[in-house]
Amino acid sequence: MKIKLTSVYVNDQEKALRFYTDVLGFVKKSDFTNGPFRWLTVASTEEPDGAQLQLALNNNPAAQAYQQATFQQGQPAAMFFTDDINAEYERIKGRGGEFTMPPTEVTGSTIAMLDDTCGNLIQLTQLKRW
């Protein structure tokens, strides 16, 4: 069994696409519409055929409530892993990314948190090497 897709709700798919590609550096994998529905996914340039992240339009009241609650509680909607969090932090800041928490050491890892501008917090994580 493999994980091939996960979703994050966004309040604006075009804005989200720009953030996840231009700021984070992911690549667009799928983008098609069927009536009012738009299927939009991105993937890592490091694993272009790996797992995809669906940028799902948040037009469901229950999903909106969930998204707002997790954001207000400071909980990330997604976590991305890196081998060099400080370099990613500087690269993303240089592309206009706004961090709510700079790289911070916690038990077993270093994490940073940023706002995806579409209603979510995103956590970057670098695991400690023992």
Please describe what this structure looks like.
25% of the residues lie in helices and 42% in strands. The protein is an alpha/beta fold. The protein has one domain: 2,3-Dihydroxybiphenyl 1,2-Dioxygenase, domain 1, CATH 3.10.180.10. The protein has a four-stranded mixed sheet with strand order 1-4-3-2. Strands 5-8-7-6 form a four-stranded mixed sheet. A hairpin with a 2-residue loop joins strand 6 and strand 7. The chain is globular, with a radius of gyration of 15 Å. The mean pLDDT is 96.
Break the fold down into its secondary structure elements and pairings:
Layout: E1 5-10, H1 13-23, E2 27-34, E3 37-43, E4 52-57, H2 61-72, E5 78-81, H3 85-94, E6 98-106, E7 109-115, E8 121-127
Parallel strand pairs: 1-4, 5-8
Antiparallel strand pairs: 2-3, 3-4, 6-7, 7-8
Order of helices and strands: EHEEEHEHEEE
Strand order of the largest sheet: 1-4-3-2
Q: Helix coverage percent of residues? A: 25-40%
Structural class: alpha/beta
Low-confidence stretches: none
Q: Based on Cα principal axes, name the global outline.
A: globular
Strand content: 35-45%
By CATH's scheme, which homologous superfamily applies? Answer: 2,3-Dihydroxybiphenyl 1,2-Dioxygenase, domain 1
What integer value in Å does the Rg equal? 15 Å
DSSP strand count: 8
At CATH level 2, the architecture is: Roll
Alpha plus pi helix count:
3
CATH topology grouping: 2,3-Dihydroxybiphenyl 1,2-Dioxygenase, domain 1
CATH class: Alpha Beta
Q: Summarize the biggest pleated sheet.
A: 4 strands, mixed
